[in-house]
Design goal:
The chain is of the alpha/beta class. It has 19 helices and 21 strands. Among the domains are: about 150 residues, FAD/NAD(P)-binding domain (3-Layer(bba) Sandwich), CATH 3.50.50; about 140 residues, FAD/NAD(P)-binding domain. The structure holds flavin-adenine dinucleotide.
Length: about 550
């Protein structure tokens, strides 16, 4: 009950229920709601479930370690990368957390990282869901989060799975896009290894369409999952961009993440406003260059993760807003890059993305002197080698379950540029659908539950508690140690306090208010308590006074 402000002791019994005066014909019901964290988690992780499992461990008779393991298993049921995602997920769950209106969202991403790191430290293994081996072999193209998530979900159901990966190591953009200071290689390695330990075969350095043909794959496997991502950086389409000194963001990051010291010279301009642009700018800064990002809209429209933009600014990266490239000027003699010519923009009417369209200001061109230009404007799939599997217009298109055509499924960035958490979901969804189709099962459906916004909670009933913040390296240290992880997460003490900030929206957490305020004694404690399951209601005693529903802080009890 530490979560709640203290309440009065249970008042003395008054006569209620059968025989007593009926206050109303309404009766209390316990209705589990869809918490906003769960609703907004693309990978579909039961966020409230695993946090409350730890927060309420004592009530369920679990030790700290038992609760942590239970929580870890709840996360990996949907997402086999908690330590990775606890570092790189932009955590839309926090943006929707009902606690925001009180004293700040629960630090869900930091909690996930803690549980993920704890799982690695304990050497926890992923478990099989079904022990009987299945005969249908599955081929997965691409070892990014989409492909690995699909492979994991099928392997744990007993299918033989082979993943074909063009690069020398697995992880996709998690390894070749996201820089090491955000996601250390050993964390990624360890979470990938758990998937191969489950029996998934990984064929690295094997590009489908080059090292192995599609016909060969079709003959080896009953179905194929395509998770090739989107690795080809788009060009700017301006004069002067062909040749040395101009790179795409994905090319630059791929080379840097592969261990190459890319020569960028003293001044770099990065064009773009997404994650790739920010990562490229920060890596270039770590190579010792002065870096400026050129973005055609304003800060408000920047799609990059806000905290990453903040950290880039702290590291001395300049951002030129409302400017777009028009040419790359090269030196007359040696053709070296001399400047990026940009034109000023202003914001006009909103475009199809809902963001205000940048409109060029005539005659406003000027030059930014640079030695290297990195164009990080967008990416697209290198679809040609696998286009025969059903790609159209350079991308794959799938139905709601991820099916592209008979025997072909797809997910992740090759459907649409997204996030790792979306790729993980789409890999899982395809695996569940493939499993259902092989075994003649009904496709899995999400459980429909009513939503629970902050207005349905009694926020004032919860104790105010400060949000846990992560320890982060100072900007000077970050630049001095370019590969060192910037973010050091939260301590165990912070972790245990932070789980207690979860409001348990729409899910009983045993605050006892219903039991305490019910003068007819309708609420009886259950013998096997656990999150969401603490009281049963003896409706025959109820006089319909509604007090239980009025006092329930989390919106679990309502009158019907
Ligand atoms: C620089 C950058 C930073 C990002 N930062 C974040 C972030 O902080 N948080 C976040 O959630 N998301 C982030 N993203 C997005 C995220 O990385 C992607 O959405 C996600 O990795 C997509 O997963 P995927 O499995 O579809 O593709 P990928 O991760 O791209 O993996 C695809 C894999 O397929 C392989 N492949 C391609 N063609 C073939 C072939 N013919 N044969 C065999 N293998 C092949 C590739 O080598 C690659 O390993 C970032 C993306 C970039 C580019």
């Amino acid at each position: 009950m530490g979560l709640l402000k203290s309440v009065a002791k249970k008042p003395p019994l008054r006569m209620g229920g059968s025989g007593a005066t009926q206050v109303s014909s309404l009766r209390p019901v316990q209705v589990e709601k869809l918490a906003p964290c769960l609703e907004s988690c693309p990978s579909g992780t039961d966020v409230r479930g695993w946090i409350t499992t730890i927060a309420q461990r004592e009530k369920a008779g679990l030790s700290e370690e038992q609760a942590l393991e239970k929580a870890w298993r709840m996360i990996v049921d949907k997402n086999p990368f908690p330590a990775v995602m606890g570092r790189v997920c932009p955590h839309p769950c926090e943006a929707r957390c009902n606690r925001t209106e009180k004293d700040g969202a629960v630090a869900i991403n930091s909690l996930e990282r803690f549980v993920g790191d704890w799982g690695l430290e304990k050497g926890l293994a992923l478990e099989r869901l079904e022990t009987d081996p299945k005969p249908e072999s599955v081929g997965v193209i691409g070892a990014g989060p989409a492909g690995l998530s699909c492979a994991y979900q099928l392997a744990r159901r007993g299918y033989p799975v082979t993943v074909y990966e063009a690069f020398p190591a697995a992880g996709g953009m998690l390894r070749y896009g996201i820089p090491r200071y955000r996601l250390p290689g050993d964390v990624l390695d360890a979470e990938v290894r758990r998937i191969t330990d489950l029996g998934v075969e990984l064929k690295l350095g094997t590009a489908v369409g080059r090292d192995v043909s599609i016909e060969e794959l079709r003959s080896r496997h009953r179905v194929l999952f395509v998770g090739i991502g989107a690795h080809r950086g788009k060009r700017m389409g301006v004069p002067g961009e062909e040749g040395e000194g101009v790179l795409t963001g994905t090319e630059f990051l791929n080379r840097a993440n592969s261990g190459e010291r890319v020569e960028v010279g003293p001044c770099v301009a990065v064009v773009g406003g997404g994650d790739t642009a920010i990562d490229a700018a920060r890596v270039a800064r770590r190579l010792g260059a002065e870096v400026s990002i050129v973005y055609r809209r304003t800060r408000a429209e920047m799609p990059a993760i806000a905290s990453e933009v903040e950290q880039a600014l702290e590291e001395g990266i300049q951002v030129t807003f409302l400017a777009a490239p028009v040419a790359v000027r090269r030196e007359e003699g040696d053709g070296k890059v001399a400047a990026l010519v940009v034109r000023r923009m202003e914001l006009g009417e909103p475009d199809s993305s809902g963001r205000r369209r940048p409109v060029p200001v005539p005659g406003s061109e000027y030059e930014i002197p640079v030695s290297t230009v990195i164009a990080a404007i967008s990416q697209e799939p290198e679809v040609e080698p696998v286009a025969a599997l059903g790609a159209t217009d350079g991308w794959f298109a799938a139905d709601g379950g991820g099916k592209v055509a008979d025997g072909v499924w797809a997910g992740g960035d090759d459907l649409e540029l997204g996030l790792a958490t979306i790729a993980i979901y789409q890999g899982r969804r395809a695996a569940e659908m493939i499993h259902a189709s092989f075994r003649g099962l009904a496709p899995p459906q999400p459980v429909e539950r009513p939503k629970i916004p902050a207005a349905r909670l009694k926020l004032e009933a919860y104790e105010a508690k400060e949000r846990a913040e992560r320890a982060v390296l100072a900007p000077g240290e970050r630049l001095a140690l370019p590969d060192a992880e910037i973010d050091h997460g939260i301590t165990r003490e912070q972790f245990l306090a932070e789980v207690g900030r979860c409001l348990s929206c729409g899910f009983c957490f045993d605050c006892e208010k219903c039991w305490m305020y019910c003068q007819a004694s309708c609420f009886k404690k259950v013998e096997d308590p656990g999150p969401g399951h603490y009281f049963k209601i003896k409706l025959e005693l109820c006089d319909g006074c509604k007090k239980c529903a009025e006092e329930c802080p989390c919106g679990y009890v309502e009158m019907a």
